[in-house]
Design brief:
The structure is a homodimer of 215-residue chains.
Chain A lengths: L1 E6 L8 H16 L4 E6 L9 H10 L8 H18 L3 E7 L7 H10 L16 E7 L17 H11 L3 E7 L14 H25 L2
Parallel strand pairs in A: 1-2, 1-3, 3-4, 4-5
Helix pairs in contact in A: 1-6, 2-3, 2-4
Chain lengths: 215, 215
């Protein structure tokens, strides 16, 4: 069995979303020591900004119209991304919140992937595949906080993964990862430690359950 | 006076967001016949996917650490985008909903622009600038509809433009633009005609008010 892991952090060192996903992956590796992990770092090696529009142009053009080489390349890239995703039995998406919204690189990847016929429509090839989405937010967005309602990414990612692509999805969230980085947040140090421990525990449980769900 | 206009549609022909923004621009030109419009087509000429991470790396590096040429180019690109935006007295953003979320190209542009010191922090250079956001959705997302709650872009764009960048913002929305394109929606033809007429009327009023607000 294979785990597909996508990271959308633009950082390699010090990335909290990677650290959270690492815990899930540890549990996967503990439960499936002979299996492999397919990595896709869309934050470091992003899909080009032109790929999705070109793939859409190819889709929308009449059947008898010749495609440009650029369009064919974009369609091939979409197919390659989908091949990687579908090569696995389970999936792990580690995506930070950036500027209160979705990672531009994760959105670019989703837009491109959804152009492939296997991932569009009512019966996507990922239907029923167990998956974990690990979301990390620098601030705190809980009820009553000044940022309540400012997370426009998590809900969208859940819709796409769970309702459009029909993954069997579990979500792990961590907040306040900017505590310790931004001195203005120093008063929340204890709370951040607690939130991180809780997120790590959840990630561990989700990782174990991911193994169980592919049994 | 100058109007800055950003289009995020990946189409040039047949784009509903462009058509809606054209109405706003017509009113601008009628009210200010001797003024110019600065155009930025981020859906057709997108910011590279690597620009924002490079600009962030440059920002985050210690002051005495040397920047790479790539990082310096990304910082210069951010500054160029902000120069264009700030060269105008009013702004018009025409952004379609794509896959229930924000345009990847608009998000990439926002991420990059926000790295510039003039657009970050509590006193962004656009504070008080009159602006119109024209949003177009292919489906219908109204209360009670199957897609209620599926628009994850408009709320985010309003937050960024109105609350983060403090534009004096008006919003024009059009829905059901896929009626006439997707045969499954043919039963909604009359409703779509009505929605379009209403959106056009709103766009005309917002365009006039944009002229008035820069008087």
């Amino acid at each position: 069995m294979t785990l597909y892991r996508l990271d959308a952090s633009i950082r390699v060192e010090g990335s909290h979303s990677r650290a959270l996903a690492d815990i899930v992956e540890e549990e996967w590796n503990a439960g499936r020591p002979d299996d492999t992990v397919v990595n896709r770092h869309v934050g470091v090696d992003p899909v080009p900004a032109t790929a999705w529009p070109l793939a859409v142009q190819s889709l929308m053009a009449p059947a008898d119209e010749e495609r440009t080489l650029e369009q064919l390349d974009a369609v091939a890239l979409a197919a390659h991304e989908v091949d990687l995703l579908l090569s696995a039995d389970a999936a792990l998406f580690a995506v930070p919140l950036y500027n209160f919204g979705v990672s531009q690189h994760f959105k670019a990847w989703v837009d491109l992937v959804i152009t492939d016929p296997r991932m569009a429509g009512e019966a996507p090839a990922t239907a029923g595949t167990p998956a974990v989405l690990a979301v990390v937010r620098g601030g705190f967005y809980g009820p009553g906080s000044p940022r309540e309602g400012w997370d426009y990414a998590t809900g969208w990612m859940q819709r796409i993964l769970s309702e459009v692509w029909k993954f069997d999805l579990a979500v792990v969230e961590e907040e306040f990862t900017l505590v310790g980085v931004n001195p203005a947040l120093d008063e929340f140090k204890d709370m951040a430690v607690e939130l991180r421990a809780k997120a790590a525990q959840n990630a561990r449980e989700r990782g174990r359950s991911l193994v169980g769900r592919t049994a």
